[in-house]
Write a sequence for this structure.
């Protein structure tokens, strides 16, 4: 498998977490969430550069690793990824974009996604939808618009891995505002590139609300 760079967008406002403190600085197993996410890649010999697009005071909590670069975050997630992409060396072909708020990503999931990306050009992990999905005109309360069949629906995770040049080209050609881009492989699809999905992991939870910290803590405890 080839060497690659990693981008961690970490400039969100943590509004759904409460907004008083960045969720990335919350402790999981005695360590900040963002440090778990960083270390999952730092321990790998095939990761040659890590770029964190930081905001909300995150930069001051990051380690001084030689291969770690910190840049300014954007006004939206895709903007942060675009800023970080400028710091990926041109001689690194592959780039992984990983949510800084997914602290429990496993080495096996990274391996699986990287292998699929190299084989197919771009790949991302996903998990099947288990809850019943309904349409409705929000915000609630409101009338139900009917059930959406779950067959063929997948909830996306990260890391999402693609060629650096392909992602840069997709940003240049993006036909919609960046604040409407919800994940990184969407950019590639908008540019006409096919994306391969691989099996994600339930433990690869994204911290969004305080309740997610409790779930992540349970997953963490089960591995110790």
């Amino acid at each position: 498998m080839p060497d690659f760079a990693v981008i961690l967008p970490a400039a969100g406002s943590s509004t759904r977490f409460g907004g008083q403190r960045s969720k990335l600085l919350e402790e999981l197993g005695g360590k900040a969430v963002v440090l778990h996410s960083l270390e999952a890649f730092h321990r790998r010999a095939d990761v040659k550069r890590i770029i964190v697009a930081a905001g909300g005071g995150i930069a001051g909590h990051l380690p001084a690793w030689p291969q770690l670069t910190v840049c300014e975050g954007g006004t939206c997630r895709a903007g942060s990824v675009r800023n970080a992409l400028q710091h990926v060396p041109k001689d690194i072909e592959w780039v992984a974009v990983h949510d800084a708020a997914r602290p429990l990503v496993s080495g096996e999931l990274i391996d699986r996604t990287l292998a699929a990306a190299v084989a197919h050009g771009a790949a991302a992990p996903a998990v099947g939808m288990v809850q019943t999905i309904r349409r409705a005109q929000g915000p609630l309360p409101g009338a139900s618009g009917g059930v959406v069949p779950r067959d063929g629906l997948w909830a996306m995770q990260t890391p999402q891995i693609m060629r650096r040049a392909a992602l840069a080209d997709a940003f240049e050609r993006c036909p919609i505002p960046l604040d409407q881009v919800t994940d990184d492989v969407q950019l590639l699809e908008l540019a006409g590139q096919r994306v391969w999905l691989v099996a994600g992991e339930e433990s690869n939870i994204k911290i969004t609300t305080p309740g997610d910290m409790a779930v992540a803590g349970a997953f963490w405890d089960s591995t110790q």
